[in-house]
Amino acid sequence: MRRDLLLDRIRGCLIGGAVGDALGWPVEFRSESEIFNQYRPNGIRAYDLNAQGVAEITDDTQMALFTANGLLCAETANRRDGRAKPPRGHVAAAYQDWLYTQEADFGPDAAIRPSGVSWLNDVEGLRHRRAPGVTCLKALRLQNAAPGNTEDYVKARLNESKGCGGIMRVAPMGLMDWPDIRALDYEGAQLAAITHGHSLGYMPAAVLVHIIHRIVYPRQPEAALKEIVVEARDTVSEIFACDPFLSELRRVIDLAIDLAEHSPDGDPDNIHRLGEGWVAEETLGISLYCALKYRRDFSAGVIASVNHRGDSDSTGAITGNILGALLGYEAIEPRWTERLELRDVIMEMADDLYACQRAAESGGLETPDWTRKYARGRRKE
Predict the structure, then answer these.
(1) What predicted TM-score, i.e. pTM, was given to this entire model?
(2) CATH number of the domain located at residue range(s) 3-374 in this protein
(3) pLDDT over 80 at 108, yes or no
C-alpha cells in the first residue's frame, strides 16, 4: 500500500471517530422528539458548538486516544526488549492514566494514582468529564485500588457488563499491522474485557478491530465493506465458537447488513430494529448499518448514526471510525475538522500510529521525541 494512503486511512479512522463522537454528544440521552424538535426538520446535521465555538469530544475519543497511547508504549517496549508480549498490560495502564484525568483532584493527595505511561496526561484539554461510562469508572477504580498483572481479561472476568464502553475505544487496535488477524481480533476483545466482562461486551470489539484492520491493510484485490463485515463475523465466530451469546451477535450483524441493503424504511426506524446502542452488540449493529448504507458518504453516515434515541456519541464514533478508515481523512469535509476539540492531538496520535507501522519496515523508533513520549510518558521534558 502507498504510504500516503495508509496515513490517510489512519488519520481518517481516528478523526472520523472523533467527528461522530462530537456530533452525537449533544443529543446523547435525548428522545427523538427532543432531537427533531430542537434540530428541525431533519435532526442534528452540524456541530452544536460550546461557548468557545468548539465541538466537544467525549470519553469515547478520550479513551480511544489512551488506547493508542498504550499500544505504542507496548510496541516500543517490545522492540527494545526483542519480545512479542501482548499490549493489553500497557493499555490497561494507559486506562489508569485516563481514569486519573477524570478525577477532580489532580494533586499529590489524589485518590487515584496514574500509571505514568501516557504522555496524554500532559494534555490539559483531556481533563474534562463528558459523561464517562459508569462501568469503565468502576472497573478501573477497582483495578487502581488492587493493582495486579492480569494475563487474560477475557478469562478473568471483572463483571458481567456488555455496555458499549469497551467497543467504543478499541479502533486503534485495528490500526496495528499484525500478521495474524485472529490474534489481533482476540487482543481487541481483551482490551474491551479490561472493563466489560460479558462476551457481548468484548466479542463486538473483536469484530470492529477486524473490520478496521482489513480496511486499512487490505488484501489483494481489495474487498468491499460488506465482504469485510462478513469475514469479521465469521472469524470472530471461529474464535469464540463455544460462546452461548455468539448467535445473538451474528443475528445483529446479519440484520444490519440486511437493513442496509434492502429496507425501504427510514434510518430511525431501521436503527430502532437494531436497538439503542447502550450495549455493545447494538452499538456495533447500528454503526455497521450506517457505514454500509452510506459507505461512499462520510457525512451522511455519521449524521444518520447519531439521530436516534440512544447512545448517539458512541454509534457516531464507531461509524466515524469505519467510514473514516474506508474513505480516508481527505474525504472528511473541513466543516467537521476545523472546530473539532483537540484535533491537533488526535492528528499527532494518528501520525504516531502511522510512524510505528512504517518503522516496522525501517527498523527503528529511537528518536528523542518518540522515546520521551512512549518510553517515559512525557509530552515535553
Answers:
(1) 0.96
(2) 1.10.4080.10
(3) no
